[in-house]
Amino acid sequence: MKADLVVKNIDNLITLKGPSRARTKEEMREIGLIKNGIVAINGDKIIYVGEGELPADIEIDENTLFLDGKGKTVTPGLVDSHTHLVHGGSREHELAMKLNGAKYLDILEAGGGIHSTVSATRKASFDELYRKAKKSLDIMLGYGVTTVEAKSGYGLDDFDTEIKQMGIAKKLDEDHPVDVVSTFMAAHAIPSKYKDNPKEFINIIISEMIPEVAKRNLAKFCDVFCEKGVFTVEESKKILEAGLSHGLLAKVHADEIESLGGAELAAEVGCVSADHLVAASDKGIKMMAEKGVIANLLPATSFNLQANKFAKARKMIEEGVAVSLSTDYNPGSCPTENMQLVMSFASIIMKLTPEEVITAATINGAASLKLEEKIGSIEIGKKADLVIFDAPNLNYIIYHFGINHTDKVVKNGKVVFEKSKHISC
Ligand code: NIG
Ligand code: FE
Asked: Which pTM value belongs to this model?
């Protein structure tokens, strides 16, 4: 077969070779490292992965593009499997409030927080929101992210705004090199109109919105903010089960701030992932391990909430829960697109090893999006999504934190980002 693109002389080629499923326990430290590695690509697929030179059956010609991996570390494209990519406005005014001791849930309760982004998102046009989200997607790509999940949830009872957000995610998936996977999350806050009667809003989500989202194929997942003062465990269960009955896979914002039983709920319902889990109970963690629910951890959110509390990632891995990592990019609890910073936080604060971190940010992130057969590792037949890091080894990427180590990003077999063409990122 002919190679269109070859990356060779790679000092450290991290393949993540292994089963096409989320990796657990010690598997999370088996990264399939090849020294002096080489990868060949035809079209948008990987056709060879090995050491040294190409074998004779891989043809090259004058059109084959060669990239030099000397001094570099190459990994699968990073997967950011939890973001609130499409939204209007920003909330920098909350920083001063938080510095003065205001808590995230108090700001929400007082009608700010998510509600202020809801008004900004409702007001913004499709084009405005599209341009803003595209700018963020460009930044994410620059940090080595090749697949992103994007949640709705800033329209709430305004279904047109929810549809607008999911429409933008869909259009970006078509227009932008980064793949965008859409999640329906009208259950993100109780709209002011339904403050005294949340049941009515829940019924609308279940009987009107979910069937329509499924019918129009606007999302792959359904998500709920299961939290004190937002949606109870029972309400979340009803919504997630309604989603499942219409073919929307389940995800849940679980035990982010208060320990409500979100992890247990995720196991009962059969969620693909439970996300946040800062306050997850030991029982919930055990139940997630038994049911194979992925713990999608978001340490940059914990950092930004200034609560000095992070998810018990080590315990989760020891109990056999597969861990993935994401930014949670959103204007309130986590205004950053920087997946590499999240990876450093995961290691420096949550004590994941660099090997566990890269597993969590690639193949386990892919599994959080049910895309583990297609992406998340550098193996023959998988999509040619790679990051070439200007870093001599994996540890260096994690340890030298807060900056961008990306040299080039290859998405679907094409070089779509080159550091040399960007002054800074
Ligand atoms: O994952 N907690 C709920 N949703 C987001 C925050 C959204 C916002 O504050 O706008 C989160 O932290
Ligand atoms: Fe979130």
From this structure: 0.98
